[in-house]
Amino acid sequence: MVRPITFSIDIEAMRHNLERVRARANGRKVWAVVKANAYGHGIENAVKGFAQADGLALLEIEEAQRARETGWKKRIVMLEGFFDAEDLARLEVLDVETIVHDRWQIELIRTTPHQNLRVHLKVNSGMNRLGFDPGEVPGLIDELNAIAGVKVVGIVTHFANSERAADADDCVSLNAQLQRMKPLLGRTDVELCLANSAAAMLRPEAGGAAVRAGIVLYGVTPDSAIASSDLDLVPAMTLTARILTVRDVAAGESVGYGSRWTAPRDSRIAVVACGYADGYPRAMPDGSPVWIAGKIAPLAGAVSMDMITVDVTDVPEARPGVEVELWGRHVSVNTLASLCGTIGYELLVSIARRVPMVSD
Ligand SMILES: *Cc1c(COP(=O)(O)O)cnc(C)c1O
Asked: The CATH number of the domain where 116 resides is what?
């Protein structure tokens, strides 16, 4: 008997979301960002679901190799480039393009032989994390192009703020970030790739020749204030588990570690086979939504390592063996994430290895 918890991946939803992004990209190429095992959805599923994307963007050379082994023949770009000489040597073998964000990478490229190394220069537009100052870039392009077997094919930047309102003055606005990039925006000798999900979906003025979309391809919005349906997106991941038992709890009795929740009335409590060791955040407060038999029922009591407890007093259908949705189409990861002080991205990538994946 296996423990009754799984997460399922809807590849058709991934295809649908890619079409939505493509429509918003308005002629720009679409790179599908599949880092962190495709935001927890599996590289193999991403290769199927995003077959119509122009390229895959990811982080680890092992994931690039998995994508190639799964049959991905189009472009792949490494979002942080290579991490050492060994990594660099594998790029051309796998026919993978690389971002270059620091001088040490250029020096390593200079001191190794190349046949066909394609480089995207990363530009710092205000995040102050990775990338060169915009003013350095024209010189660096010439410098790299002068190395045998090396060609600069793109310029990328990653916005610190693309989901904020255009006039937000508490941060470097998208317009200010674009302004910093301005000397580079007219270049046609390289592919300009500027927008992430938020900018691709909501900020057409971000422009560029290509977009890099991540979270929206999985059907989740980059901002919890926007519902998936607002952007016609369908969540691709659903985390489900079954009810192990249902117990009557008298008014005044409490439930779970620390007796955090106390029954305000005679109640029925469903114990569900999902805990923080599965990736359901321990920080979820009482009242957090759990989808059971077509209704939303509130979490009641602290999340345990392997179980949660849910108040199903108003869900008469709840009984052992009934399947519940922890997140997916009915309970959005962003809603849960907001309730426990994080973002949907973190929940998607946090499903534990012990939870089996099923995909259609
Ligand atoms: C993760 C990432 C993206 C995708 O971000 P989303 O908000 O998921 O669209 C794009 N570009 C870079 C450099 C990234 O690291």
From this structure: 3.20.20.10
**Number of C-beta neighbours around residue 3 at 10 A:** 15
Q: Which atom of ligand 1 is nearest to the CA of 33?
A: 4
pLDDT at residue 174 is higher than 90: no
pTM beyond 0.85, yes or no: yes
Known active-site residue 218: no
CB of residue 214 inside a 6 A radius of ligand 1 = yes
Q: Locate the ligand 1 atom nearest the alpha carbon of residue 222 and give its number.
A: 7
Over residues 8-12, the mean pLDDT reads 98
| 266 in the same domain as 149 | no
Does residue 327 lie in a domain region? yes
- The catalytically annotated residue of 39, 73, 218, 257 is 257
Name the domain boundary from 154, 184, 219.
219
Backbone angles phi, psi at 47, to 5 degrees: -60, -35
Q: Which residues, at least 6 apart from 110, have a Cβ–Cβ distance to it below 8 Å?
A: 147
Query: Does residue 196 have its Cβ closer than 6 Å to ligand 1?
Result: yes
Name the closest-CA residue to atom 8, ligand 1.
214
Region of 38 please: left (phi>0), alpha (psi -120 to 50) or beta: left
Domain carrying residue 124: 11-219
Active-site annotation holds for 35 = yes
Total number of domains in the chain: 2
What is the per-residue pLDDT across 267-287, written as a single tens digit (0 to 9) for each? Answer: 999 999 999 999 999 999 999
